[in-house]
Every structure is written in structure tokens, then in C-alpha cells.
Design brief:
Two copies of one chain form a homodimer.
Chain A (H helix, E strand, L loop, with lengths): L1 E3 L6 H4 L3 E4 L6 E4 L4 E9 L8 E9 L1 E2 L3 E2 L2 E4 L5 E5 L7 E7 L6 H6 L2 E6 L3 E4 L4 E2 L3 E3 L3 E9 L6 E4 L4 E3 L2
Parallel strand pairs in A: 1-17, 6-14
Antiparallel strand pairs in A: 2-12, 3-4, 5-15, 7-17, 8-16, 9-12, 9-15, 10-11, 10-13, 10-14
Chain lengths: ~170, ~170
Amino acid sequence: MSFLHPTTLTKESFSPFGELITLEESEHFAINQGTTERYHALSEVDVSEQSGKAIISLFRGQSFSLPFQLKVMERHPLGSQSFLPVTQNDDHSYLVVVAPSFCKTEDDIVNNLCAFVAKGFTGVTYAKGVWHHPLISLDRVSDFIVIDRKGPGNNCDEINLTQKITVKF
Amino acid sequence: MSFLHPTTLTKESFSPFGELITLEESEHFAINQGTTERYHALSEVDVSEQSGKAIISLFRGQSFSLPFQLKVMERHPLGSQSFLPVTQNDDHSYLVVVAPSFCKTEDDIVNNLCAFVAKGFTGVTYAKGVWHHPLISLDRVSDFIVIDRKGPGNNCDEINLTQKITVKF
């Protein structure tokens, strides 16, 4: 068994895997005659390949806790997938486990895994083709707004992890 | 001065203006080895005209209360615009004021206005070209995830309301 320790989630540390969705250091400006502040383009949505369209869904994820043994990694080769927690509680958190899109085998993935803990109203956009573990909400059932792709073509690859890898602090 | 009274917001009553985003009566199914429930395609995103792309932003809207005098109506002729409140509190609410896309003048808009109160985790997608009042959060400053269009072309028409129309219960 091997262990994976989460590191600090920042725009920079997440950039190889997509975009971090956060109000911190984001461009914002007043609109609507000054009555609304727009935090602009926190993430782009990249789903147009093979005539894909963006759709808005909600994912309700079961509660997990650390240590957590990873089960499977998946990726969407035709489109980005964005997750935004429907909460602003700073004690809300979830685990983000990713591997770069160049990985082709379980060994590639295992050798390039990164884990992060996302807190409060912090979202992620997994770029097209980036490997990620399915949703791991921590400590409570959690709802996420998800923006991803609907359209023709195979848009999901999965690799079951036969090696035992456990995420723990 | 004339008055506009909000009516009940349902998928059916909102359908001339776009899509209501709600978990009620929505398609849902288990994914991620049964650990996540996916409430699927609560809304589509319609932004591809003239090479548009979807972006994810956050709007922080000031607090208003009823009675509320309408100021301006706007529409986005090239793309849909979706609003999802970042809350699941059932006592959270906002005002939705719309007019059909066929309206061309202030008189057209005024003669076809509809107002609704959206509560809790209820979102709306304004269809392409549907007239709507800028964000009117009720009773508190409120954050909304917004999915709309980035791209070339003029995507905002505005008509200032010179007639005094007040929304009240």
C-alpha cells in the first residue's frame, strides 16, 4: 500500500489540471447600474468539440473521510467538467485527486497523482482529458453544480486502480 | 404608476422565458459506483452562436425589498444566461422579472411583463433574447453562479423604463 498526501490547492498548483474557481485574485467589476459585482469568467467551459453543448447538472455526493483509498480514475476526452460547491461554509471541503492528461496506463497515473483539499466556495474545472477521481465530499453529503458536455462521441475513459493508494493527511 | 404582482414560479409558468433550474421533478440517477446522485441536465446552455463560448462567473447582488420600482430591462440576443443561487436556504429569495423575446419597444415590454419570486436553490436560465430585469436579490446580499456567453458580437440590448412600474405582493 502507498500513501498520497494532499498539498495546498492554489491557482498555480492546480494549473496543470485545469482552472481553480475562486474569488481570490479574480477580475471583478460593477454591473447593473452598480448594484451587482461581477466576478468575471472564473472559468471557461470547453465542450464544443464534436458539436458538444454545455449542460448544467447537480451532483449530490456521499460523505467520505480520510484516510481514503482511491478506487478509480476517469477522464472526459471531449470536454471540460466544472464543479462548484453549493455552499459558502468555510468548513466545507472535498478531495481533488488528479493526474495529467498525458497518462495512458495505471502506472502512468499512479506515478503522477496529485491530491488537494478544496475548502469553502472553491470550485475546479478539470480540463479536457485530465484524469480525476470521482467526487469525494468530506465529512458530509454535499451538492455541487456541475457544468459539463452533452453530445456525440465517447466522452468517458475509466481506469480501475488495482494498486492500493490511500490519501491521508 | 402601475403595479405588478409576482405569480407562482413553476417549470410551466417560466417555460416561455427559458428553463427553471430545480431538483423537483428532474431526471436523476446514480453515478460514480453509486456514490453520487446526478440530477441531470437541469438546464442547457445555448451560447454557440457566432463562435460564442460558455464562461462561469459569480454575481454578488445587493439587497432589495418589495415594493421595488423596475428600472431597466435587458436581453442577450446571442446567448442564454443562467443564474444559480449559491445557497440552499429556503428563506433565500430573489425576484425574476421577464418579458418575451418578441418585444421590441418599452410599450411591448410593459404590456407583457411577468414577475416571479424564486426561493431557495431555484435557478433560472433566460433563453436567448428574453428580456429580464437585472438581478434583484431580496432581503440580503446574495451570490449567484452565472453561466453565460463570451464571444464576438453585440450581446446586450437595454431599454430604460420611463414608465413607473412597481413590483409588490
